[in-house]
Amino acid sequence: MVDYGIKFWSNGDFIIDEGVVKVNYMSKPALIDIVREVREKGYMGPLLIRFPHLINNQITKLYNAFESSIMEYQYKGEFKAVFPLKVNQMPNFVLPLVELSRTKCYGLEAGSKAELIVAMSYTDKGSPITVNGFKDKEMISLGFIAANMGHDITLTIEGINELKIIIDIANDMPEPYPNIGLRIRLHSIGKGIWAKSGGITSKFGLTSTELLQAMKMLESSKLLHKFTMIHFHIGSQISDISPLKKAIREVGNIYAELRKMGAINLTSVNIGGGLAVEYAQYESMNCKNYTLEEFSGNVVFSLKEIVKNKNELEPDIFIESGRFISASHAVLITPVLELFSQEYDEGALNLKDDNNPPLVEELNDLYHSITDKNAIEYLHDSLDHMESLLTLFDLGYIDLRDRSNTEVLVHLIIKKVIQLLKYKNHNEIIKIQKSVQERYLLNCSFFQSLPDYWGLEQNFPVMPLDRLDRRPTRAASLWDITCDSDGEISFNPQMPLYLHDIDISREEYFLGFFLVGAYQEVLGMRHNLFTHPTEFSVIFDDDLNKGYEIDYLLEAQTIVDVLDDLDYDTKEIERILKQHIEDSDLDSDTKKVVLGKLYVMLSENGYLRTIAK
Ligand SMILES: *Cc1c(COP(=O)(O)O)cnc(C)c1O
């Protein structure tokens, strides 16, 4: 793999050209040049780069796909969409999203009071707002206030209790009221690691019995005319389209039934999120078995069929895709700080002139007599010998020098096997490489920047930003700088990662993690007190010198700010540290110097600042 599967996961957003990764847009800058430009300004840790044009790209693709399916099937409903804020609430994502989608009536979805405040502040009047998730009286009142302000807002009810609160509040608040949506508890279920949102045991939604009850309550409180939408969400990252088709059949029938029961203003079916993103770097590991066009075609066609059978109006189709819209816009850049190899050459071997343990002699013989025919057999023998020798060491029978010779010989044998089998037994080689992987230490925290890797074992495409015209030779595992052993992405023979052999003391090497724009930022945690990395946006404009500019730069929080966030009294911390220096035995000039250094560090972020010499 020299192209790191870029054709599978990048959708043409990024390309490899002249040995570097480039943004495939307008002036086509190389990522490495953008990174160098920002590092020259002194920002040394991990960097999160946002590309607003990719947000626009995804929104346009989504609308185009649905609008052409609607044309194709001569569907009479409209297509509408909102962005679910829980997928990315960062202002440098949300504000450009709102700005770029102005002409499309694209709205926002909120799942909490804070998100609803964002939606109420930044959604254009006329663009929809939807509200999901559990709500109390206050949150529902907030929805009424939004409606009073003139927002097109729909409160989706997750349970009968919420409907009771709405009816109560409607008695107290002036019109206009918000629209009401009912979330359906489906019996069909999504597939994949995120599929807990659908299904009869799901956390959310009304059963059929509760739907009937809700209809009665709406009717008797004279609010039935505000009931406009039914909603479902079968879970994120739907890998196959068939569960969605099943869900649509179920919901389409419910829609038609409710209309027949008198819900005449029920005109929208909200199919939630779930549209998947391809994260795989190897075709065999793909996690999405459909195209966007298949997705939209299936939704439109299925709804049309069901509604036709029941002789009902074709509903407007609402979608709340989050991952699909936001994943591609952000790239995490991590500088490689160090390579930890157990790279031994024959020079490291320090055999004794006589009385080497017999098994060490045996290893030495294996090493010298290995050929392509016996390679695998000898390899297995040598691994057995190593086990025995390590046991002998534990029991006190061999010394440290023998143990070191064991390590070196086994390592040399593995290297030789890899060399001998290079063109013969690829699968076997990849398995063997697991034991000689190189560890690349990355200046970032996986807990902060890739929490779904840690929590859900989700893989993100990763590749070096340059040297792509050279064959990478090192089987790589990746370590972050937290002191947690879970902060590791180990070499996986099913999707092996190879990186370049570099001398970090002389040259820089950066890895990019792609498709990190959905869920990772706010979900990220401050394990070891590493914070959100320094971020900035790349704005394209052909009138500019390089065809783009770097804007909205936000530096990672300083150490003092992080401690302040945890409610430490940072003034007290500064006072204590200063006092310790005052009380020390240093002379007064040195005290000043040390204190100065300390203050500088407190005002920087906590990522490592190493640079190549
Ligand atoms: C999370 C969520 C979404 C977004 O799902 P994606 O898979 O990111 O598209 C949409 N709707 C609801 C109700 C959600 O909870």
UniProtKB/TrEMBL annotation:
Residues 76-327 form the Orn/DAP/Arg decarboxylase 2 N-terminal domain. The active site is at residue 483. Coiled coil: none annotated. GO terms for biological process: L-arginine catabolic process; putrescine biosynthetic process from arginine; spermidine biosynthetic process. Its cofactor is pyridoxal 5'-phosphate; Mg(2+). The keyword Metal-binding applies. Residues 353-429 form the Arginine decarboxylase helical bundle domain. Pfam families: Arg_decarb_HB, Arg_decarbox_C, Orn_Arg_deC_N. The modification N6-(pyridoxal phosphate)lysine is found at residue 86. Its EC number is 4.1.1.19. It comes from the Bacteria. GO terms for molecular function: arginine decarboxylase activity; metal ion binding. Residues 561-608 form the Arginine decarboxylase C-terminal helical domain. The keyword Ligase does not apply. Keywords: Decarboxylase, Lyase, Magnesium, Metal-binding, Polyamine biosynthesis, Pyridoxal phosphate, Spermidine biosynthesis. Catalyzes the biosynthesis of agmatine from arginine. Belongs to the Orn/Lys/Arg decarboxylase class-II family. SpeA subfamily. NCBIfam families: PRK05354.1 (NF003763), speA (TIGR01273). This is Arginine decarboxylase. It comes from Helicobacter muridarum.
